[in-house]
Amino acid sequence: MKKKKQFATEPPTVAELGEKKANLLIQELWEKLREYEDRLALSSRNSSKSPSSDSPADKAERKKPQTPRSGNKVGAQPGHTGHKRPLAKLTETDERIACLPDSCCADCGGKVVANSSPSYRHQVFELPKPTLDITEYQLFHGRCQQCNTVSKGALPEEAPDGQMGPRLLSYVAVLSGLYHLSVRKIQRLLQDQYGTHFSIGLISEAQGRVSSMLTPTHQALHQHIKKASLVHVDETTHNRNGEEHTRWVWLLSSEDAVFQQVKYFRNKDAAKSILGEHTQAIVVSDQCPSYNWIEPERHQFCLAHVQRNLQQMADYSGKGLTASIGNRLVLLFKSVFRTQHRYEAGDVDEIMWRRRMQRLRRNIKRWLECGENVPASRYSGRCRHILKYEQGLWVFLNHPGTPLTNNEAERCLRGSVIMRKICYGTSSDRGEKFRSRILSVVETCKKRKLSPITVISTIIAGVVGKCDYPDVFGLTSA
């Protein structure tokens, strides 16, 4: 282990160091002070930190009400068409109560005859009383009356092996993967909702069984995404309880599928194993160096990440040239986003779009070259690094439909981040596989607008019933 640097009890004086060394020391300490001040100013606005890690002051600044430029108040405007829940069909209602008028008229005492159809329908939705269907398989022994041999009854083939049936297994899996409940919260919910107590170990074992049933679907999702023409990639930390080493959740996202997997490292080899070493897809990522082996003309950097890093340069506490160049670069990147949004909205044609993007590209490159010479070494190095991979900023110009940001992957990875914060780490390889597989299926269902509990129930019912494995996403035929 590397030893910590030991400092003298008293600081050196100028006479002891000499004027030249003293000036160098002052310069070094000055830069360190600026670096620490910049670290204190880090937020989700100028770094990759999550919004939840912002200080109360930064959160309050974000939550300030913003009045639209039109001057209208926030919310529905006068004349706005309202949206109401449509009434359920009569065939879908479980009970109908006819509310008839009094048979005697209140004004004249005559007989009132009710219309044949209601003039107003009022529907109330209520949850049915939650109950569990408990099936008991009774196995009997029998003795042969001739040879005295003892025989035993056997479970039918369609009977589940454990104590949970397919629908309950699916429910437990979705409570974890979609609603991010921990095992103990699932235990408490089942007890409060159904009055049935399942042990922590049984629920964990049920999740492991679901994980093994999702294996073919998980593998098929991986192969499907590796064939996609556009892939978003991202990664986040994952903790194994009792281990000091941090693991990583890797994510691939295409137009219609999501794949997640926990890996031990966050390096080039791990990236190659999950993307495929010979991938031909357009890959959108942040500035993680694990992806720098991808050909520059197919590797689109997330411009939002780049802009946030340059915003940190613009917020430099030392001000001066460093902050000035940082501000100029941030404004140029904002212009890139504004031009792209206008092009996508149809406000500018392709010729004008390309002309403006090429002009912005030249200006950004020129200011990055100026940024290489700023006094703050960490920001000059940042500009130098962006220039080195400058081609990766503009892949979208040659490949229409390529997004400028990696927001798609970050949204899909949000479930893993929430589970890490709520449920903490996993305790075994089984737990890691369950999280990866259940979240892959849940996020894919979101993309395809499918019900996760229906999809998972279909898979589990097929496996338990020993039928052909269900191709719920149509990946085998694709």
Q: How would you characterize this protein structure?
A:
Helix content is 45%, strand content 7%. It is an alpha/beta fold and 478 residues long. The strands form two sheets. Strands 5-4-3-6-7 form a five-stranded mixed sheet, sandwiched between helices. Strands 1-2 form a two-stranded antiparallel ribbon. β3 (230-238) and β4 (247-253) form a beta hairpin. The longest helix is centred in the last third of the chain and has 25 residues, at 320-344. The model has no long low-confidence stretch (mean pLDDT 87).
Give the SSE layout.
Layout: H1 14-17, H2 19-40, H3 56-62, E1 141-143, E2 150-152, H4 166-177, H5 183-194, H6 200-213, H7 215-226, E3 230-238, E4 247-253, E5 258-263, H8 268-275, E6 282-285, E7 299-301, H9 303-314, H10 320-344, H11 350-371, H12 377-388, H13 395-398, H14 407-423, H15 429-448, H16 452-464
Parallel strand pairs: 3-6, 6-7
Antiparallel strand pairs: 1-2, 3-4, 4-5
Helix pairs in contact: 4-6, 4-15, 4-16, 6-15, 9-10, 10-11, 11-12
